[in-house]
Amino acid sequence: MRTSKQQQREIKSSLDEKLSLSTPQPSLLESLASECTNSSSPDATFQYAFALSKSSSPSELSYSITLLDSLLKSGYPHQIDCMIGSCQAHYLLKQYAEARSVAEAILRNNPQNALAGELHVASMVAMEEDEERKVRNVAIGGTAAVAALGLALLLGGAGKKR
Protein backbone atom coordinates (compact mmCIF):
# COMPACT_ATOMS: atom_id res chain seq x y z
CA MET A 1 0.00 0.00 0.00
CA ARG A 2 1.91 3.01 -1.27
CA THR A 3 0.50 6.37 -0.34
CA SER A 4 1.87 9.82 0.17
CA LYS A 5 3.12 10.90 3.59
CA GLN A 6 0.09 13.17 3.99
CA GLN A 7 -2.32 10.35 3.18
CA GLN A 8 -0.49 8.08 5.63
CA ARG A 9 -0.79 10.69 8.37
CA GLU A 10 -4.49 11.08 7.60
CA ILE A 11 -4.96 7.30 7.88
CA LYS A 12 -3.19 7.37 11.26
CA SER A 13 -5.26 10.31 12.45
CA SER A 14 -8.49 8.62 11.36
CA LEU A 15 -7.52 5.36 13.09
CA ASP A 16 -6.53 7.21 16.27
CA GLU A 17 -9.94 8.89 16.28
CA LYS A 18 -11.79 5.60 15.68
CA LEU A 19 -9.91 3.90 18.49
CA SER A 20 -10.48 6.77 20.90
CA LEU A 21 -14.22 6.70 20.15
CA SER A 22 -14.43 2.92 20.62
CA THR A 23 -13.03 2.76 24.15
CA PRO A 24 -15.34 0.37 26.02
CA GLN A 25 -17.37 1.54 29.00
CA PRO A 26 -16.39 0.03 32.37
CA SER A 27 -19.87 -1.47 32.72
CA LEU A 28 -19.42 -3.37 29.45
CA LEU A 29 -16.03 -4.68 30.54
CA GLU A 30 -17.47 -5.76 33.89
CA SER A 31 -20.33 -7.67 32.28
CA LEU A 32 -18.00 -9.33 29.75
CA ALA A 33 -15.54 -10.23 32.52
CA SER A 34 -18.35 -11.79 34.53
CA GLU A 35 -19.56 -13.74 31.51
CA CYS A 36 -16.01 -14.87 30.76
CA THR A 37 -15.51 -16.03 34.35
CA ASN A 38 -18.83 -17.87 34.53
CA SER A 39 -18.39 -19.54 31.16
CA SER A 40 -15.42 -21.49 29.90
CA SER A 41 -16.45 -20.65 26.34
CA PRO A 42 -13.68 -19.41 24.05
CA ASP A 43 -16.24 -17.06 22.48
CA ALA A 44 -16.85 -15.37 25.85
CA THR A 45 -13.09 -15.05 26.35
CA PHE A 46 -12.73 -13.59 22.87
CA GLN A 47 -15.48 -11.01 23.40
CA TYR A 48 -13.89 -9.89 26.66
CA ALA A 49 -10.36 -9.83 25.23
CA PHE A 50 -11.43 -7.96 22.10
CA ALA A 51 -13.24 -5.31 24.16
CA LEU A 52 -10.13 -4.97 26.35
CA SER A 53 -8.00 -4.46 23.22
CA LYS A 54 -9.61 -1.03 22.81
CA SER A 55 -9.22 0.02 26.43
CA SER A 56 -7.39 3.12 27.58
CA SER A 57 -5.74 1.23 30.46
CA PRO A 58 -2.26 -0.18 29.74
CA SER A 59 -2.82 -3.11 32.11
CA GLU A 60 -6.09 -4.02 30.37
CA LEU A 61 -4.42 -3.74 26.97
CA SER A 62 -1.62 -6.05 28.08
CA TYR A 63 -4.12 -8.51 29.50
CA SER A 64 -6.06 -8.48 26.22
CA ILE A 65 -2.88 -9.41 24.33
CA THR A 66 -2.31 -12.31 26.73
CA LEU A 67 -5.88 -13.56 26.30
CA LEU A 68 -5.89 -13.16 22.53
CA ASP A 69 -2.51 -14.87 22.15
CA SER A 70 -3.74 -17.80 24.24
CA LEU A 71 -6.84 -18.07 22.02
CA LEU A 72 -4.58 -18.11 18.95
CA LYS A 73 -2.40 -20.85 20.42
CA SER A 74 -5.44 -22.93 21.34
CA GLY A 75 -6.67 -22.90 17.74
CA TYR A 76 -9.62 -20.55 18.21
CA PRO A 77 -11.40 -20.44 14.83
CA HIS A 78 -11.45 -16.63 14.50
CA GLN A 79 -7.68 -16.21 14.19
CA ILE A 80 -7.75 -12.96 12.16
CA ASP A 81 -10.06 -11.30 14.68
CA CYS A 82 -7.73 -12.31 17.53
CA MET A 83 -4.79 -10.88 15.61
CA ILE A 84 -6.67 -7.61 14.91
CA GLY A 85 -7.40 -7.25 18.64
CA SER A 86 -3.78 -7.96 19.52
CA CYS A 87 -2.59 -5.48 16.89
CA GLN A 88 -4.93 -2.77 18.25
CA ALA A 89 -3.70 -3.36 21.80
CA HIS A 90 -0.03 -3.21 20.75
CA TYR A 91 -0.74 -0.01 18.84
CA LEU A 92 -2.51 1.62 21.79
CA LEU A 93 0.39 0.59 24.06
CA LYS A 94 2.69 2.41 21.61
CA GLN A 95 4.37 -0.90 20.76
CA TYR A 96 4.42 0.07 17.12
CA ALA A 97 6.93 -2.52 15.87
CA GLU A 98 4.82 -5.33 17.34
CA ALA A 99 1.62 -3.82 15.94
CA ARG A 100 3.23 -3.52 12.53
CA SER A 101 4.44 -7.11 12.66
CA VAL A 102 0.98 -8.46 13.52
CA ALA A 103 -0.66 -6.28 10.84
CA GLU A 104 1.81 -7.58 8.26
CA ALA A 105 1.03 -11.18 9.25
CA ILE A 106 -2.68 -10.49 8.73
CA LEU A 107 -2.08 -8.77 5.39
CA ARG A 108 0.06 -11.65 4.10
CA ASN A 109 -2.94 -13.97 4.41
CA ASN A 110 -5.71 -11.45 3.89
CA PRO A 111 -4.42 -8.47 1.85
CA GLN A 112 -7.90 -6.95 1.58
CA ASN A 113 -8.34 -6.52 5.34
CA ALA A 114 -8.92 -2.76 5.62
CA LEU A 115 -8.41 -2.50 9.38
CA ALA A 116 -5.12 -4.41 9.22
CA GLY A 117 -4.04 -2.05 6.43
CA GLU A 118 -4.90 0.99 8.53
CA LEU A 119 -3.10 -0.44 11.56
CA HIS A 120 -0.06 -1.21 9.42
CA VAL A 121 0.15 2.30 7.96
CA ALA A 122 -0.56 3.96 11.33
CA SER A 123 2.13 1.87 13.04
CA MET A 124 4.69 2.82 10.41
CA VAL A 125 3.80 6.51 10.66
CA ALA A 126 3.95 6.37 14.47
CA MET A 127 7.36 4.68 14.33
CA GLU A 128 8.61 7.39 11.96
CA GLU A 129 7.21 10.12 14.23
CA ASP A 130 8.92 8.55 17.25
CA GLU A 131 12.20 8.41 15.34
CA GLU A 132 11.85 12.05 14.26
CA ARG A 133 11.12 13.02 17.88
CA LYS A 134 14.23 11.16 19.09
CA VAL A 135 16.40 12.83 16.45
CA ARG A 136 15.02 16.26 17.41
CA ASN A 137 15.66 15.57 21.11
CA VAL A 138 19.22 14.44 20.38
CA ALA A 139 19.79 17.55 18.26
CA ILE A 140 18.39 19.79 20.98
CA GLY A 141 20.42 17.98 23.62
CA GLY A 142 23.54 18.20 21.48
CA THR A 143 23.01 21.91 20.90
CA ALA A 144 22.49 22.47 24.62
CA ALA A 145 25.64 20.49 25.41
CA VAL A 146 27.68 22.51 22.91
CA ALA A 147 26.25 25.75 24.34
CA ALA A 148 27.08 24.62 27.88
CA LEU A 149 30.59 23.66 26.82
CA GLY A 150 31.04 27.01 25.10
CA LEU A 151 29.77 28.83 28.17
CA ALA A 152 32.07 26.80 30.42
CA LEU A 153 35.05 27.58 28.20
CA LEU A 154 34.08 31.23 28.08
CA LEU A 155 33.72 31.42 31.85
CA GLY A 156 36.84 29.33 32.37
CA GLY A 157 38.80 31.58 30.02
CA ALA A 158 37.48 34.70 31.73
CA GLY A 159 38.61 33.34 35.10
CA LYS A 160 42.17 32.80 33.86
CA LYS A 161 42.51 36.43 32.72
CA ARG A 162 41.85 37.78 36.19
Automatic annotation (TrEMBL):
Keywords in alphabetical order: Membrane, Transmembrane, Transmembrane helix
Annotated region described as Disordered, given as residue ranges: 1-23
Coiled coil: none
Transmembrane segments: 138-159
InterPro entries for the chain: Fis1, TPR-like_helical_dom_sf
Family annotation (SUPFAM superfamilies): TPR-like
Compositionally biased tracts (Basic and acidic residues): 7-19
Protein name: Mitochondrial fission 1 protein
Organism: Cyclotella atomus
